[in-house]
DNA sequence: TAGTTAATCAACCCATAGGTTGAATATGCC
DNA sequence: GGCATATTCAACCTATGGGTTGATTAACTA
């Protein structure tokens, strides 16, 4: 699978996005990450593996802990991709703006 | 499934992203969209349904044709989400910048 | 009315995703 | 060495995704 697909796919799960949000506040171990979720530790471990494969997190080794860190680098690619379409959602506002200016002049 | 997940999920397929790129150049019918792809028309039809459910395209009715139009609105949500993490990939550059400035002063 | 074209529906196949439970592997602590 | 803790591995289950082929629906055309 290509990188962008892998990243989008990793982001398509709310649990994984929540994990990223958690890691945005700082490094955390698997148990710490898993704590707020109503799923098993193993399930969280799997999510972490998906995030790791997508390059969104990196993992260290400290004794029996595997501290996870956010790596936002792949999100740059997402930002670049989405920027290509920016004009399409702004256009709408431009059109609205044009329309409002037009009726303003007319009345 | 929440909207953001649905959108990310829809974007996680290269064929679907290619369809969006095609529609960025203008409206097209299902057959026109399907033409460049090495998969069946039905498969493309399914992809279009996924994109439609995610709100990324809208479809009209003109005789037996179903012209598809890009609707980039949901991508705003993606842009907003990813922007939250922007500082994390920029930080890295800041750190690099700081580092470069530092060694420059040192030598 | 019959035939062609556009698109969808339906049934099916296989691989993968997300979850489970239970066992295994390290590592630190007495 | 023996035990607790942190994490992963393995096997399994079920649902879904992306693809196929064949049949169906709807609209134009001769």
UniProtKB/TrEMBL annotation, chains A, B:
A GO term, aspect molecular function: DNA binding
UniProt entry keywords in alphabetical sequence: DNA-binding
Database matches in SMART domains: HTH_ARSR
Pfam families: HTH_20
HTH arsR-type domain segment(s): 1-90
Segments forming a coiled coil: none
Keyword Mitochondrion: no
Highest rank taxon of the organism: Bacteria
Keyword DNA-binding: yes
Matches recorded under NCBIfam families: HTH_metalloreg (NF033788)
PANTHER family, alphabetized: SLL0088 PROTEIN, TRANSCRIPTIONAL REGULATORY PROTEIN
Protein name per UniProt: DNA-binding transcriptional regulator, ArsR family
Native organism: Asanoa hainanensis
């Amino acid at each position: 699978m290509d990188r962008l697909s892998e990243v989008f796919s990793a982001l398509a799960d709310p649990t994984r996005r929540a994990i990223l949000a958690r890691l945005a506040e700082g490094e955390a171990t698997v148990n710490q990450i898993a704590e707020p979720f109503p799923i098993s530790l193993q399930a969280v471990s799997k999510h972490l593996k998906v995030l790791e494969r997508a390059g969104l997190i990196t993992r260290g080794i400290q004794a029996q802990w595997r501290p996870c860190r956010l790596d936002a680098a792949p999100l740059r690619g997402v930002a670049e991709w989405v920027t290509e379409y920016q004009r399409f959602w702004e256009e709408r506002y431009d059109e609205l703006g044009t329309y409002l200016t037009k009726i303003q002049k007319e009345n």
